[in-house]
Amino acid sequence: MEGMVSSRADLVSLGHGSGGKLTHDLISKTIVPALYGADGAPPMEDSALLTIPGAWLSFTTDSYVVSPWAFPGGNIGDLAFNGTINDLAMSGAIPVALSVGLILEEGFPLADLRTVMRSMGQAARASGVPIVCGDTKVVPHGKADGIFINTSGVGYRPDGVQIHASGARPGDVVIINGTIGDHGIAVMSEREGLRFQSPIQSDTAALHTLARALLDGGVDAHVMRDPTRGGLATTICEIAADSGVAIRLDERAIPMATAVAGACELLGLDPMVVANEGKMVVVTPEKDVEKALAIMRAHPLGKLSAVIGRVEEGRAGRVSSASVVGGERMINMPHGEILPRIC
Amino acid sequence: MKYINEFRDKETADKLADDIRKAASGLDRQITLMEVCGTHTMAIYRYGIRSMIPKSIKLVSGPGCPVCVTPINYVDTAVEIAAQPNVAITTFGDMVRVPGSRSTLQKERSSGKEIRVVYSPLDAVALAKENPAKEVVFLGVGFETTAPLIACSILEARREGIANYSVLCAHKTMPEPMEVLTSGEIKLDGYICPAHVSAIIGADAYIPVAKKFSMPCVVTGFEPLDILKGLAMLARQAAEGRAEVENEYYRVVKPEGNKKAQQILRQVFVKSDAVWRGLGTIPDSGLAISEEFDKFDASKKFGVTLPEPKENPACICGRILKGLNDPPECRLFGSACTPDNPIGACMVSSEGTCAAAYRYGGYGE
Questions:
Q1: Rounded to whole angstroms, what are the CA distances from A193 to A72, A186, A199, B120, B287?
Q2: DSSP string of A230-255?
Q3: B94 touches chain A (CB under 8 A)
Q4: Structural domain for B124, as ranges
Q5: Which ipTM did the prediction report?
Q6: How confident is the model at residue B365 (pLDDT cuts 50, 70, 90)?
Q7: Number of compact structural domains in chain B
Q8: What percent of chain B has pLDDT over 70?
Q9: In a domain, B258, yes or no
Q10: In CATH, A14-157 is 3.30.1330.10
Q11: Which contiguous run of DSSP H or E holds residue A160?
């Protein structure tokens, strides 16, 4: 039970959360080696010490309770890492370090914990942002759903960067870095045991290098947001409301994978409200559009970047869209749970 | 995407919109067309169809959202059954948010009752098979589109000898309410007949409505090009003074419908009077589980019968379901009654007329 033997029979027990030897072994053998710490970090201090160049500190936190914890294209580990990186990146910050808090349910297989930690470590290594502190608790069977993860992150925003949710101005152009709905449909199809001909992969990804490339390239990004839960519709509505402007989208221009469109038809869902985990909406003045598109399309996470709408004068928060057949429709935030329809 | 993108083509849509304008130019008055089915209501909003057709054609929504027309006491009954020990309620997604007189299934789930959303009643049968000590109840709601599936689940349970599966049945049928509406207050000039219901009951099912009430009927698919074409056909009938059943959705709907599905419905269900929320009791407009399948009838198994409670007197859902009023004409709409806190039937499901108007009609901010 000490992380040496890899067998499905090894389960998280309440003892793993007791703070004693089992806890120590779990952390030192199963969790820490899998993750990615700061260079030369001493082992397990009470807090991590970080150097941040004189600038604005950016600080964010997010908890992940996705069920099932594994889905096509990722699992709760890389999801929890990337999600917090993206929250930092969308405010124009350069991520410096993350923390990870694990809440494990008694009986969660250690092999699964290893899988989650490995994904998280891989995501951290790939992004170059270390995980510098953490905490692990175990709750009795039935008090959690296998594994919950909280990640917090700090970063700094260089002087001169001005990105706010309220920054959209009439005349600005709305860009997205690729297809919508992939994550939500990947999780939903896994959860419901739905099998599609071409499996739909979650788009979970760390967007900080893409965001950085835009800012370093001199793009005057007025707003950057990642449309996660609530989908593109919610994010665009929030930007319009916060900025006191109207936004008009063109549905035909919004990239979507054929399989996602098909799954949405089948499930009776509007892809505009389905979650994404590796997408960003950029609002930028007309003059920077070509530059922004060139930079985004040259980045691995932005190959399918497209202009999807425009900011207009109008009632604050009004979001409309040209439908695929050219009719005019209104876009609102979804209400409550996103539920499949009867027929 | 095969069979989807073809029916969402902008150029073809423009041509069909032209056809509608031409047909409408032969009209000497404004005509009112009713889409009976909730999926049409949603599609009309989602694709912005109203903005593509002339003012001389008015579209109103009918009673075709199965969740919306389900009476409140049905939800109360489901909540009551869920409260019994060792019971799992299984349902299609949109029923969980429907308010009963005291609670919703969503709230009951939060308080620890076992309420599961499934995509097929066969999943509920499988759940019953895996948990023989648990009573698994499926909420049988919907029109002829869903009813054959539920009938199959009952047949499957019987074949497998699964005794702990039952259905709380509130199925409704078409076209009976269309006859009731046609003879009511509203002056309709044509029906956009449902797509998938018609695949089961057949286009010929609307011949009595068309003949008896001189009512143009066009069976129409759910894709935007289908709807535009259906509207052109209805406008042409109205302009030429014809009242026929025409079938725009002939790639799916046959005149006689799906015989196999009809046979399964007859095997498991019997026609019954049904209460439609907002419309009242309509004779022969529902399906009840036949005596042969008594054991699978949750209303008999659990013996729960509850009275139908009073609706909020300010709610005008009944008039909206009959096409007499538009959602913004209700004083509760968008203020007291929203998708987060629905008061009337039409706000409950995403397919409800008020919910669709709120979501896509620009009232939602």
A1: 12, 10, 12, 12, 31
A2: THHHHHHHHHHHHHT-EEEEEGGGS-
A3: yes
A4: 72-173+273-302
A5: 0.75
A6: very low
A7: 3
A8: 98
A9: no
A10: yes
A11: none
